[in-house]
Amino acid sequence: QVQLVESGGGLVKPGGSLRLSCAASGFTFSDAYMNWIRQAPGKGPEFLGFISPSGTLYYADSVQGRLTISRDNAKNSLYLQMSSLRAEDTAVYYCARGQWVFDSWGQGTLVAVSS
Amino acid sequence: DIVMTQSPDFLAVSLGERATINCKSSQTVLSISNNKNFLAWYQQKLGQSPKLLILWASTRQSGVPDRFSGSGSGTDFNLTITGLQAEDVALYFCQQYYGRPPTFGGGTKVELK
User: Fold this and answer.
1) In B, which residues are within 8 Å of A102 by CB distance?
2) What is the pLDDT of residues A39-75, one digit of tens each?
3) By CB distance 3.0 to 4.6 Å, which of A63, A73, B50, B110 could disulfide with B42?
4) Does B69 reach chain A within 8 Å, measured CB to CB?
């Protein structure tokens, strides 16, 4: 079955950087649109961006310039590079499969931005 | 961005009773070109990630029990759970995918009365 496993979260200081990973299995990763979505405590999810099977990127304006999404189809892996982190970036970060609608989500990895 | 507003924030329902959650979008999510509403519903149980229940406003995802149904069009939508089960206690979110970026509602928490 579809499995998505995020890793790389943790505590980071304001202004710092972090790279998240998502390991995928159970489906043809290279054919899938893959997304990063985050959920701050007590809030609804927030779409961050996607990478298409061909590598086309789309980012939400709210994070444009601070986030970089990439993929390695040979490793069935998705990545999120985050920089200039702020307290309001504190959230659980999920990778999810799908184009605009998300039919499979990972368990999430917590990113906490605090001094 | 299209703003999604859900109501109520909390809903307490007895076992076997009906739960209805409302979701309103700040702009229409109905496509004139294909007459489809670009609206999805997710369920998030405590400590878990969201699970897709319904897309196109009323199409159940494979494996979703038929006690879950979606309705509505344009800017006003409902998710109805007919005959609430204990395992339905969860947070429910709507999401529009008509505008860019896709946006989610703030969530409705369904609890047992």
Assistant:
1) 42, 50, 52
2) 999 899 999 999 999 999 999 998 888 999 999 999 9
3) B50
4) no
